[in-house]
Amino acid sequence: MVLWCRTGLLLLAMQPLVLPAADTTAVLLVARGDRSFPPYECINERGAPDGFNIDLLKAISRRLKMNADIGLDVWETVREEFTRGDIHLVTGLIRSAERKRIRFLNHPRRCILLPVRAKRIAHSKHR
Questions:
Q1: Rounded to an integer, what distance in angstroms lies between the CA atom of residue 104 and that of residue 89?
Q2: pLDDT digit string (tens) for 55-99?
């Protein structure tokens, strides 16, 4: 009896290992981004979404074998669609207190640094 119980528990523990993987190709991930945020997101000369965020999303969806509908639009339109729940993912969304209240935001996976450089201006005696 003990042997049967142990065997049953072992089979239950192994079950996730032998089940076939979920078919992620049947899932359509709807992703949108800002059409005017180069080099991260923009519309290229062929009229297609382009940029670092787009390339990253395409690579991830290929790796996970997911179909992704990637589109870029005016930022205000993208925000409205995301707030209404019409889209699943916004590319390049930066955290803010306002956005945290609107929708759940996960932990950032990368950090974008945008350095600002200015030329030193000599102070003029004539103000």
A1: 11
A2: 999 998 999 899 999 999 999 999 899 888 899 988 877 777 776
Beta strands 89-90; 49-50: pairing state? unpaired
Cα gap 72→54, rounded to integer Å: 9
CATH of 22-102, one of 3.40.190.10, 3.40.50.410, 3.10.20.740, 3.90.226.10: 3.40.190.10
The span from the CA of 19 to the CA of 10, in Å, is: 15
| pTM, full prediction | 0.61
Average pLDDT value for the chain: 75
**CA pair distance 49, 73, nearest whole angstrom:** 10
